[in-house]
Structures are given as structure tokens and as C-alpha cells.
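Handout, page 2. Input:
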Amino acid sequence: MFYRLGDPALKNWDEAIYAEVAKEIVQSGDWLTLHWQHTDWFEKPPLTFWVMAGLFHLFGVTEFSARAVSTLAGVGVVAVIYGIGKLQRGPACGLIAALILLTTFQFVQMSRLVNTDVLLLFFIYLAIYGYLRVRNGDRRWWYVVSVSCALGFMVKSFASLFAPAAIAFALIADRQVNEILRANHFWFSILVGLGVIVPWHATMIYLHGSAFVNEYFYYHVWSRTTTALEGHSGPYWFYFREIWEKTHPWWTIAPVAVVFHVWQIKRDRFPVVLLALIVFVFAFYTAAETKSTSYILPVYPALALLISGVFTWLWDRHRLVLRVTVILVCAGFAYTAVGKIKSYYVRIEEPDEGVKELARLAAAQDLPNELIVYSRAGQFDSQAAVFYSNKRVLQATGGNSGYSTTLYHNYQPLADIIGEQPSGIMLVKDDVAPLLGDYTIEIVGQSHNLVYAKISNK
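Output:
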């Protein structure tokens, strides 16, 4: 999980944006209001960025420190999945589920990228583990359930509600609602959970009012559900395709595992909470207009546990042919899955490395504290350049950018930015020659297909 974690450069969009937000916490010392390019940033709750900023403070602002939040959370998910499997059918079930999860391509991939999804995943399954301990008779685990749900909310707000929704459905299915409502631990744990969630959200509403509410709640929750934002759309079978592609070859057993799990639930051998979680996540995101490959991530650990339940049931038949079959299938599937993971394990993308090298070169130049990124067509995303340059990044274009003005796309005509004094600019090599008629350009460095130069009006 940690092998060469810091080698690839941070990618545009989520990786570079989130790392920059955490870096600006360290630079500004403001741990309440998050910032990107030193402007207020209300897209996500703060917990992921607090943890990342803490790692930056301890170990330096590096790609490894930025990604380590997801990787540590991924290791935690594997441990919790082992614990859930052990509670259900014993250590073998937990070990097989952990093996399946560690050979699920998208889980490993997301655990090695900067994101909020894997830390959310950890808290979702920690809450489910706590519920299973409650179901076994120890009511004190309600505090683990409640705090895990609350911390999940502090990671990705309403996306964390799948855990309490699945647990509530399981309580209704098990006819335990009345008993739970009379338990003091249950009500006290809810108060503890609210104590985790309310202070920061109340403070943000007090400090920023409608600006925070509109961006945080309306745009990033309601609008993502009802409209396809930022081009993230897809057909109704979008997540079927994702599971087929990202869990190969384990997906071949998934339908059998779901049917088997339903059969076991009817025989009161398995709790319904895992199946409820799969159904809620899959149904909600299929109905939502905005589609993203990361949204379906909470389904994968549950599927690993369901598939492991089938293998463990076969193993417990104590027949040699079945045990040999289980060993061969698990080994063969794991080998196939590792082959796919290995081919994508460390992807060094030349454009990303070029931006990293030249942005760091720009950071060392004695020029105004701005970096221009230029594209004739207006297609130069600036997020990684912001992180690596430690400068305010301006986006410039030579024509119609085709983008509406947003926080991450604000293209201006190059002529409106360049003055008599030299400015730093990053652009594609092929875009240099067409500018020489109007501007003086002194190339300072090159990397892959990009150049960094000093530019001024003639």
C-alpha cells in the first residue's frame, strides 16, 4: 500500500486541490476556514485536511504525506473488514475478505491517491463493526458507532449517512428498535456524535453565513444529486460497469454471493446491514445525476465480505474437493487481480511530471508572485501548478476557452495579463512560436512537452 507512494506527481483536480488546501492550513495557521489559492473554500468538511496538514507539519509538504491519509485509512479498512469477517464466520472469513479487498483494483488505486473517499470508507465500516458488536450484546459500542458516523460526516458530510441508514434498516429488520430506544448508551452516544459535528458547522455558518450554506450544502449536496455537475454524467448502468471493470475477476462471484447472503439472512445466520449498505449506496448513486467512479467505493468492502462468506461456507463443509476448489479459486483470482493492479501501480504521467518540475522552477525565480499558465485553446488546468509553485496562478488563453468562470477555470486573454515587466509563464512548447511576434520570451527551463519562460510585451 505504501510502496513508492510519493513517486508520481500530484494530479490536477482532487489530488492537487486537496493537498493545496491542507498546505494553506499550515501556511496560514487557520484551521477553521479552509482556503484554496487563499480564497475561502467550502467544498468539503475539514477532517481530511486537518489530518493531512498535521502530516505536512510533522513530515514536510510532500506527495507521500499528502497521500498517506488515504493509505493509512485503506490499511484501517482492511483491518476493520477482517474484524467484521471474524465476527460473522471466524478468522478465515476475515482473512479471505481482506485478500479480496487488497486485490480489488479500485480500492488499492483510491488508497494511493489524495481523496476524501477512503477515510470516509474507514469510518463507515468502523460504524458497522461497532453495530455488530452491539448486536452481540455490548451496548457500549454505540459510542463507536456514533462517533464513527460523526467523523465520517466531518470527512464527506451527507455521504456518511449510508452507515446510519443501513444500521437503522438492520435494527428495523431485527425488530430491535424498541429495545434500542430504551437504551441510555444509544441516546448518550448520539449526543457525543452531535458534539463532534455541530461545533465546526455552526462556526462556519456564523462566520460565513449564506456563502457557506450555498456552496457547502446546496451546490455540493443538492445540486450533485439533482443535476450532472462538471461533466460527470453517465447512463443508469454506469456503476454496473464500474463494478465489472474495477473488481475483476471477483465480480464473477458477486451475484452468487448476494443470493447466498440473502439465504443466510433468512436463516438468521447473517445480519442484514451489509446487504442494506450495498443496496442503499448503489440505488442512491444510480438515481443521482452526477456520476463518479469514487462514489461506489463503499460497495467493495461489503462485496468482499459477501464473497468471503461463500468461500468460508464451502470450506466449512469439510470436504477435500471443496477446500481444494476454494484454495485454487482464491489463488487464481488473486493472481489475476494482482496482475491488473501491478500494471497500474505506479503511473508516472509525463505531463504531470512536467508541471511539477517547471512549477518548482517557477517557485525559485525572482519574479512577481504570480505564475501564468497558457494554452491557445484554454485547456491548461492549473491545480498542480498552484500546489508546486507556491504562487497565485493565472490562466490565460489565446482564444475562446469554452469554459464558464469558476473557481478552477478563469481564463483571461493573455494580452490583458502581460505587461512591460517580465512575468513567469508555463506553456506547451508548440505554443511558444506563435507568441514571438507580440511578446519577448526567454525560455528558462523545459520538461517533457512544457516550457517555463519569462514573458513581457515587446
